[in-house]
Amino acid sequence: MTVPCVRVDRESGEETRQRLAESDLVDQGREIVGENGWLYIPVTDPTAVSDEDTVVERSVPERETQTMPDDLVAFDASYERLGEVVLIDEDDPDRARALADAIVESDIPTKTVLNRASKIRGEQRVRDWEVLAGEDTEAVHREYGCAFALDLAAVYFSPRLATERHRVTGRVAADEQAVDMFAGVGPFAVPFAKRGATVVGTDINETAIEYLRANAQRNGVADRVTAIHGDVRAVAADQYEGWADRLVMNLPHSADEFLDTARRLASDECVLHYYDIQHEDDPFGPGIRAIQEAMEPEYAVEVETEHVVRSYAPHEDNVVLDVRLLRE
């Protein structure tokens, strides 16, 4: 079986491997092989590597010495990784303990194992965690060439939305002015700025805003990111009225409550990314109607994309509407 690999000359091999590893793109289950002056580095997501890299399909051997959590427990091991912090979601304390021990004993680089102990709650969108290994709830997560520091106990962050964030980022132009109305630690704002956009990010969670500023600095875009603590309705609508060429509204349970503010922020032509959670029978209709009610007749509303991001709960979908607003 062939797998995607980055092909690079041997002289540049280690530099390239380190760069791919920093973005968590190296396929740890496969060996790096060399042939005729080239190295073939297996990667987990060929769409996420730099355009400067050459991706080819090649047969490379599995790494026989790697031990994974599945090898050490008698059930399917389910977990997520944020850098060296591993997240699990186990209600049974015995299973949670066994899985945490297996993760620590495996070849996965791990400093902390956290078990979800509550649902996301409150306007700051945080949850409780049970620390099963290690002590530190801070992680450094790498995603599509960006690095994000965050404290899972103090801010909201979902690694499952990485592909969606990358999709939206790919539409951003270098001369744009963008507002992320619920910016968190910067997973939209920072890659937008790396594309050359000027970005304003607001959030009601002061700790998230502190991380956003630090992450803008970490990724070399502090000069293009303005981070503002507070409710976007109070702290940004006046100063940035009519300013935004692009708006991100990733607050799916209540984004409709902020559409009047989005209208004030929008420039004469603005793209709106509106996230929603709705029943599978009509996942897009409520959002479209809410946007039309808030924007018309001041703006013509053109729905460019209706996209299911992921299943949220039984019979409920997390969806996004990409909407172009044109001032009439």
TrEMBL record:
Q: Name one GO molecular function term.
A: tRNA methyltransferase activity
Q: Which Pfam families match?
A: TRM5-TYW2_MTfase, Trm5_N, TYW2_N_2
Identify the GO cellular component terms for this protein: cytoplasm
Keywords of this entry: Cytoplasm, Methyltransferase, S-adenosyl-L-methionine, Transferase, tRNA processing
Residue limits of the SAM-dependent methyltransferase TRM5/TYW2-type domain?
79-327
Which PROSITE patterns did the record assign? SAM_MT_TRM5_TYW2
Q: Name one GO biological process term.
A: tRNA N1-guanine methylation
Protein name per the record: Methyltransferase
